[in-house]
């Protein structure tokens, strides 16, 4: 019988959560489209469990046409009504409108600075922060960096980007490595690869 690797406790509820933990969570992402997609999914989680969003993730990619900010930024009332009727996503008007507003915010940052990715990664000096937590109780819900990023994004018209949501986002996209030191993923070198918008693992 193969040895079962040590994992962060939070992922042990389902096979889908384990796969997300093992293959996606904490792997650095440097492309604008998947970073926008992650931001929308983490915002959609507000008030819900991550497992709920994980189960609806494919629905989000389908309903939002690949979660491409250049496409979502063009949405108007017709698309909003379509999304509100789509059971494959969280049918919350504010969250849907925030996805559209945030897409427009991404395009504005690209126009101003050239890259949404470079803008986000500048908050951690363009390299992952590697923490050394031994217990999940030590992992913060937010940090000074997530508070600063939240303030900046809100000032740019983004919604559902509170500091707690953004810290979860930072963990998910590898800006912060918050795998416990006992977890087999903590020491894995993940910074060399770049996750492309069409990555299959990102959409599992």
CATH architectural name: Orthogonal Bundle
Number of domains: 1
Mean pLDDT: 91
Q: What portion of the residues fall into strands of 2 or more residues?
A: under 5%
What is the class in the CATH system? Mainly Alpha
The strands making up the biggest β-sheet line up spatially as 1-2
Q: Provide the CATH superfamily.
A: Hypothetical protein, domain 2
Q: With helices defined by DSSP (H or I, 4 residues minimum), what is the helix count?
A: 9
Order of helices and strands: HHHHHHHEHHE
CATH topology: Endonuclease III, domain 1
Name the overall outline.
Answer: globular
Helix proportion range = 40-55%
- Specify the structural class: mainly alpha
Total number of strands: 2
Helices and strands, with pairings:
Layout: H1 15-23, H2 32-44, H3 50-63, H4 69-72, H5 77-84, H6 93-113, H7 116-121, E1 129-130, H8 144-155, H9 163-172, E2 176-177
Parallel strand pairs: 1-2
Describe the structure.
The protein has helices at residues 15-23, 32-44, 50-63, 69-72, 77-84, 93-113, 116-121, 144-155, 163-172; strands spanning 129-130, 176-177. With 204 residues, it is mainly alpha-helical. Helix 2 (32-44) packs across helix 3, helix 2 runs antiparallel to helix 6 and helix 2 crosses helix 9 (163-172). It starts with 14 loop residues before the first helix and ends in a 27-residue tail after the last strand. Strands 1-2 form a two-stranded parallel sheet. Residues 190-204 have low confidence and may be disordered. The longest helix has 21 residues, at 93-113. The chain is built from nine helices and two strands; from the N terminus they run αααααααβααβ. The chain has one domain (9-203): Endonuclease III, domain 1 (Orthogonal Bundle). The protein is 48% helix and 2% strand.
């Amino acid at each position: 019988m193969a040895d079962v690797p040590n994992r962060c406790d939070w992922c042990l509820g389902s096979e889908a959560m384990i796969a997300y933990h093992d293959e996606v969570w904490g792997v650095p992402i440097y492309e604008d489209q998947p970073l926008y997609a992650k931001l929308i999914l983490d915002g959609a989680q507000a008030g819900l469990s991550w497992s709920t969003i994980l189960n609806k993730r494919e629905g989000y990619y389908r309903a939002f046409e690949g979660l491409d900010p250049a496409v979502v930024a063009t949405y108007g009332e017709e698309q909003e009504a379509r999304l509100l009727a789509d059971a494959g996503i969280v049918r919350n008007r504010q969250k849907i409108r925030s996805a559209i507003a945030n897409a427009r915010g991404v395009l504005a940052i690209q126009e101003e600075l050239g890259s949404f990715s470079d803008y986000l990664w500048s908050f951690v000096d363009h390299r992952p922060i590697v923490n050394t937590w031994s217990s999940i109780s030590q992992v913060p819900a937010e940090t000074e960096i997530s508070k600063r990023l939240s303030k900046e994004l809100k000032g740019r018209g983004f919604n559902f980007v509170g500091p707690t949501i953004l810290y979860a986002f930072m963990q998910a996209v590898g800006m912060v490595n918050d795998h416990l030191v006992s977890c087999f993923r903590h020491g894995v070198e993940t910074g060399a690869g770049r996750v492309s918008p069409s990555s299959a693992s990102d959409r599992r």
